[in-house]
Predict the structure.
Amino acid sequence: MYRYLQYLHRCFKLRSSRYQNLLRTIRAHQCQQIVEVGVYNGRTARKMIQTASISHRPAEIVYHGFDLFEQLTDAELESELSKRPPTRTAVQSLLRRTGANINLYQGNTLDTLKEFAAAGALDNRLNTLIFIDGGHSAETVAHDWENLQPCLTEKTVVVFDDYYPNAHPAIEGKGCQELVSSLDPAQYRTEILEPVNRFQKDWGELQIQMVQLQLA
Ligand SMILES: C[S@@+](CC[C@H](N)C(=O)[O-])C[C@H]1O[C@@H](n2cnc3c(N)ncnc32)[C@H](O)[C@@H]1O
């Protein structure tokens, strides 16, 4: 009951943020396994695990997080429209306190996700959320999706961040909109989620949404 009240409070605090979609998805699908591509400071991971713990004991929740952490270079920070994450150790220590099974994979997802998928590290018996929010170049988003796509089952919900509905030269070649529009609707059900978050940049307004995907 306490965890559910905490969840309602968290959703209320995120009422105008697209991030509420992650918590609502975990709750609606009773997700027990979470894959986050792009962990950053681990705070979203913590909220997702806390939400999963309404339906599952923390020790039964599995979290897999991918990031470069302190290996992120200045060039990658710029080309991936990224944020500078803390160290892997700092994030590990934050997330360990949730009581969930925490697995952090440090390195470029071009390598780490491929190894992860090939090793069959996902438990496909569990309801699973895959949150793709790592590098923001369209190329990296496409690679991350291609590597994870074979892991999808009918128990998987994928959420992509960084769907940019308004085209602008400043964000050309970034985000997941190109990938989403290329997907076969006979194979995947996609939904562009509300709300739209808006940020004022020196070139104009950056609009960001999340997209949810499931097998059709
Ligand atoms: C936007 S942040 C993720 C935010 C996080 N999901 C959250 O909700 O707080 C993007 C993260 O992806 C990581 N990243 C960017 N490109 C990457 C790559 N090619 N491989 C692995 N991690 C990458 C960055 O280090 C950064 O921490």
User: Anything to note?
Assistant: DSSP finds eight helices and seven strands in the chain. The helical segments are 2-13, 20-29, 43-52, 74-79, 88-96, 109-118, 138-148, 177-182. Residues 2-13 form the longest helix (12 residues). The mean pLDDT is 95.
